[in-house]
Amino acid sequence: MNSQDSVIKAAIIGGVFVVIGACIGGIFLILNTFINNGFVFAGAGKQNPYSTTAPVSTQSVSIPTKSSNNESDGNLTSCSAFQNGETRQISPGTFVIGDITINGTPQYDVGGTGEGTLAYFESESTVTAQWGAGCYTGNKNLADEIIQGEFQHGCGSKCTSVRFVDVQSDGQQQVQYYNK
Predict the structure, then answer these.
(1) What are the Cα distances from residue 2, in Å, to 5, 6, 8, 9, 14?
(2) Which of 39, 129, 148, 157 is deepest in the core (most CB within 10 A)?
(3) If DSSP states are collapsed to H, E and C, what string results for 26-59?
(4) φ, ψ for residue 134 (rounded to 5)?
């Protein structure tokens, strides 16, 4: 074996080690990035290193509901909750609880100030719930009971105020504010 063959073999072996080392280093770099950004394990690393426009807390409400075919008896019937970012048509006789946009008009506090939003619809409307929302059908006379419930357990712990939006039969939005 001549010296030229030895140099070629050494270059090939060295090249193989460089490629293997680069692959191993790349795998560690990728795993480290995923772990630090919380993509591999739920709760591992930083949850979200980027700023977001989501509220500081989201509204969660637990209203005892009774299934009812007759809305005149004063019971609330739960309808399908909104998922984050969902838009849908809302029928008359529906309550929506959460940070929502009604027919293009935002109806929520900015910056998570502890204000809950309850809307009642007397006309069909388009509603978007950026961060999800609760949905119930029932009579408008149940609004006071729901507002009191928001003061007890809405806004993540307790709301300090509630914005009540009454979407009238002509589509106008009447807004009233209630403080604890």
Answers:
(1) 5, 7, 10, 11, 19
(2) 129
(3) HHHHHHHHHHHCCCCCCCCCCCCCCCCCCCCCCC
(4) -85, 155
